[in-house]
Design goal:
three-stranded parallel sheet; 9 helices; 35% helix; globular
Length: 319
Amino acid sequence: MSLSAWSFVRTAEDASRPRATRVHAFFLLLLLVVGASLMPGFLHAETGAEAWLRYARLRPEIARHYRRMPSTVVVVGDSAVLKSAQQELVSGLGRMLGRTMHKGSSVSAAAIVLGTLHDLQAMDPSLQVQGDFSPDAFWLKITRLHGFACLVITASNDRGVLYGAYSLLSRVAREEHISFAALDERQQPSAPIRWVNQWDNLDGRIERGYGGPSIFFADGKVRADLTRAGEYARLLASIGINGCTVNNVNASPQMLDDSFIPQLARIADVFRPWGVQLSISVDLGSPKIIGGLDTFDPLDPRVVLVCPENHEYTFRPPA
């Protein structure tokens, strides 16, 4: 049957149907067309790239539980990590609570106050601390600073303050009840080294990787645009990861080339505001491949590298 004949038959059949049926079919078709046109927008709005850092708006009845949350975030100190913590709180709380948050540099009213224990006690000696803080441990405390009720997020180091900020954001995102009269919580990591290992190759491929090409390397060098590497460091910091090995364990000797180190430093630069340290995998055969030795036996006294600061590093096999 030709297309014109088929069209005629369909038209004749449609004409024989009740008007209500044809109107229903028309609106159903219209709904499908409109839905299809809106779908890309919905998909673009929620890609999953931000993971839990999407900071979705809370329901009004839940947001009211946080009405006593101060609207100003004061940071005592000027490190990049502390500024990251301040920005995360201003952005995250603002989006979740549907409220305008402000950045501050001094305590002149009720505020969320960020800073290391050393700096906060120098600012207000009345802040009393019981016990010692291990690195990266943090303290969330409702207390008075300069006479104002403040929510203090503090730690022995800047990175601990960032983790404390994420802890507060996580609690709000999970709609946890926070007592603004009695908040006093300390947390510390059980492991000092919390690293992730990449399997990225310099050509951009990822061995055992299934999520696209490397965000660090392409065409034998570090990528020109490291925006996604910075976003990755932010995500790592949000769950307490403090280091990342960026290359494959089957390491390219080029990673140790003097000319390549400045490229790696660019990755370290985008990691630094999130307290994430950079490391690289080194081929255990490097003493032979690069050093010109006839062995890479870690028990051989020749298999020792001496850096300019005269610190000695010995190649050791995996435990």
